[in-house]
Design a protein that fits this description.
By secondary structure, this protein is α/β, with parallel strands linked by helices. The chain folds into two domains: about 35-120, Leucine Dehydrogenase, chain A, domain 1 (Rossmann fold, 3-Layer(aba) Sandwich); about 140-270, Rossmann fold, CATH 3.40.50.720. It is about 40% helix and about 15% strand. It contains ten helices and eleven strands. The protein has a six-stranded parallel sheet with strand order 1-11-8-7-5-6. A three-stranded parallel sheet has the order 3-2-4, sandwiched between helices. The protein has a two-stranded antiparallel sheet with strand order 9-10. The protein binds the ligand Nc1nc2c(c(=O)[nH]1)N[C@@H](CN(C=O)c1ccc(C(=O)N[C@@H](CCC(=O)O)C(=O)O)cc1)CN2. The ligand Nc1nc2c(c(=O)[nH]1)N[C@@H](CN(C=O)c1ccc(C(=O)N[C@@H](CCC(=O)O)C(=O)O)cc1)CN2 binds near residues 50, 141 and 170.
Length: about 300
């Protein structure tokens, strides 16, 4: 069987074009420019790359981008004061604090401080609770991207057996809720699950979000299954060159078995930023009481 490669480059570009069209419409019809504020604390090299990409793509979509950089040793109170300022700023419709935060800062308190209406990461307990209750919520970006990618292969996920490997607040837990909203049958597995390979083999849809390079092997996968690989594991290159990016799935083994699979890089990661733009448009529309946007 030849595996279909689910191309994040193409799907994210299409989504970003739809966001840009929606931004133009909101500006023309309502005179509102959606604005996103991204807060980067410290200088983690991967976070720097992600924040630069967020800034560039926000501007390309026609939105206002506000970047705030703080030193790694910033006092918690100063970070919370910046969040309070952004909560009150009418030009800012979305607030995102890049994670992970440097040691010594309490990320739970920081996320709690973000106005739920501007929480474009969907991590505030109000949004997490609303999502779990089936209400309108801003939803974490990577799980949103996972669902969009799965739906490129299956128009409906209803009744499918899905496994989510990983139970983080950023990916695993919200992804389970989104899959339930799609009427999938969901198993959530984690480091303490017994016989993970056997659980995995029952799934039509595999979402791997464990953060361990190539942990999910080819013989764990049901033939023809769809695999969405959320892992981005930086691994030293054997020849001492640039680090390699590996997913949580052993891609070369898996592609011989699956029906469709996302690559790493070039898969889910690219959807994360595109979905952040979607959430910013949704937040701006909700804050101003505009009709639901077309993205
Ligand atoms: N506040 C948040 N922090 C973090 C999130 C998040 O959703 N909210 N997710 C990740 C990092 N992330 C966005 O912030 C992110 C990850 C990956 C990519 C991406 O484009 N990946 C590329 C490879 C890029 C590379 O070379 O590193 C790909 O997979 O092809 C974008 C954004 C943790 N923090």
């Amino acid at each position: 069987m030849t595996a279909r490669i689910i191309d994040g480059k193409i799907i994210s570009a299409e989504l970003r074009a739809r966001v840009a069209a929606e931004v133009t419409r909101i500006k023309t019809d309502h005179g509102i420019t959606p604005g996103l504020a991204v807060v980067l604390v410290g200088s983690d090299p991967a976070s720097e790359v992600y924040v630069r990409s967020k800034h560039k793509q926000t501007q390309e979509a026609g939105m206002a981008s506000f970047e705030h950089r703080l030193p790694a040793d910033v006092p918690q109170a100063e970070l919370l004061a910046l969040i309070a300022k952004l909560n009150a700023d009418p030009a800012v419709h979305g607030i995102l604090v890049q994670l992970p935060l440097p040691k010594g800062l309490d990320s739970t308190a920081v996320i709690d401080a973000i106005d739920p209406a501007k929480d474009v990461d969907g991590l505030n307990p109000t949004n997490a609770g609303r999502l779990a209750s089936g209400l309108f919520a801003l939803t974490p970006c990577t799980p949103l991207g996972c669902i969009i990618m799965a739906k490129q292969v299956h128009a409906s996920l209803e009744g499918m057996n899905a496994i989510v490997i990983g139970r983080s607040n950023l990916v695993g837990k919200p992804l389970v809720q989104l899959l339930l909203n799609e009427n999938a049958t969901v198993t959530i597995a984690h480091s303490r699950s017994r016989d993970l390979p056997a659980l995995c083999r029952q799934a039509d849809l595999v979402f791997a979000a464990v953060g361990k390079a190539e942990m999910v092997k080819g013989d764990w996968i049901k033939p023809g299954a769809t695999v969405i690989d959320v892992g981005i594991n930086r691994t030293p290159s054997p020849d001492g060159g640039k680090d390699k990016l590996l997913g949580d799935v052993a891609f070369n083994e898996a592609k011989e078995v699956v029906g469709a699979i996302t690559p790493v890089p070039g898969g889910v990661g690219l959807m994360t930023v595109a979905c952040l733009l979607v959430n910013t448009v949704r937040a701006a529309s909700a804050i101003h009481g505009l009709p639901k946007p077309a993205v």
